[in-house]
Each structure stands twice: as C-alpha cells, then as structure tokens.
Amino acid sequence: MRKRWWKVLGLAGVMGVAATGVVMARAERRRRAYTPEEIRAKLKEKVEGQAEGRRS
User: Fold this and answer.
1) Secondary structure of the chain in the HEC alphabet?
2) Average pLDDT over residues 40-55
3) What integer is the mean pLDDT of 38-52?
4) Distance from first CA to last CA of the chain, Å, rounded?
5) 2 HSE (CA, 13 A, CB side)
6) Alpha carbons 14 and 16: distance in angstroms, whole number
7) How far apart are CA 34 and CA 28, in angstroms?
8) What distance in Å separates the CA atoms of residue 19 and residue 22, rounded to the nearest whole number?
9) Handedness of CA 26, 27, 28, 33 (dihedral sign)
C-alpha cells in the first residue's frame, strides 16, 4: 500500500512540473509576440509613471 502512495505522489510531482513548463512556454510566447516599438512604448510609459510618482 505504501508503494502506491509514493507512485501517486511521484506522478503528481511530474504532472506539476509539466504544467509549470506549459505555463512558462505560453508566457514566453506572449512576451515574444511584442514588436520592438510596442516594447519601447511600454517602457516609456513605465518610466514616465515612475517619474510622476516621485514628483508627488
């Protein structure tokens, strides 16, 4: 009976690692879908927002 629990636990761990890999791959695909112009615009917005926060 103990072996069965270890097998189930091991299988759950493997499935968790696989699911994490899938999530990371999707995020990477979304990140790489931006054009360089879009990235520059987002960075400028972020910097301007931080600069305004410091002035307040």
Assistant:
1) CHHHHHHHHHHHHHHHHHHHHHHHHHHHHHHHCCCHHHHHHHHHHHHHHHHHHHHC
2) 87
3) 90
4) 64
5) 0
6) 5
7) 11
8) 5
9) positive
Q: Tokens 């999530």 map to which residue?
A: 23
Q: How far is CA 36 from CA 31, 33, 53, in A?
A: 11, 10, 26
14: which 2 tokens?
């493997």
Residue with tokens 């103990």: 2
Q: What is the pLDDT of residues 16-42, one digit of tens each?
A: 999 999 999 999 988 889 899 999 999
d(CA 10, CA 1): 15
